[in-house]
Amino acid sequence: MATPKKPRQTGAPLFWALLTEVERVTQLERSALEGKNYLVLEALHLSKRAEFGRMHALGERLGLNRSLPELRKRLEALEHLEQANLRDARLAVAALGEELQGLASEAQNLRSFRDAYAGETNNSEFQARG
């Protein structure tokens, strides 16, 4: 009976460092969403995506999987936070969409008002003659 192979240790410190970085950036996303700091979210997301890709590829090369209790625990916590971030990001996008629609409607009302009164002057034919 073959015994399961242990994950190779070469590169393991880098894997754990990458996982820590992905966790850190995911928490920064959480903070940005809570603070409605939408300008930084794209950069955070791109950074996290790159680090996660490197981490995943390295984890596969090392033979790491969820059978390791520490990895399973950390990945489950990360997934939970990711789901919360995704939910809140979707809510924020919907709210911003509604706000944008309201602003577009207000802008149209202002244009209509401007157009209605832009050509008007006080020199109408009803001016007093004298």
Question: Mind explaining what this structure looks like?
Answer:
The chain has 130 residues and is mainly α. The chain has one domain. The chain is built from 3 helices and no strands. The longest helix has 50 residues, at 69-118. The radius of gyration is 28 Å and the shape is rod-shaped. Mean pLDDT is 86; it is low at 1-8.
Counted beta strands: 0
Q: What Rg do the Cα atoms give?
A: 28 Å
Order of helices and strands: HHH
C-alpha end-to-end distance: 117 Å
Secondary structure class reads mainly alpha
Helical stretch count?
A: 3
Whole-number count of domains: 1
Beta fraction of the residues? under 5%
Mean pLDDT: 86
Range of helix content = over 70%
Which stretches of 5+ consecutive residues score pLDDT under 50? Answer: 1-8
Q: Sheet bearing the most strands, described?
A: none
- What coarse outline follows from CA principal-axis ratios? rod-shaped
Summarize the structure.
By secondary structure, this protein is mainly alpha-helical. It contains three helices and no strands.
List the helices and strands and how they pair.
Blueprint: H1 12-34, H2 41-62, H3 69-118
Helix pairs in contact: 1-2, 1-3
Features:
single chain; 130 residues; mainly alpha; 3 helices; 0% strand; rod-shaped; disordered N terminus
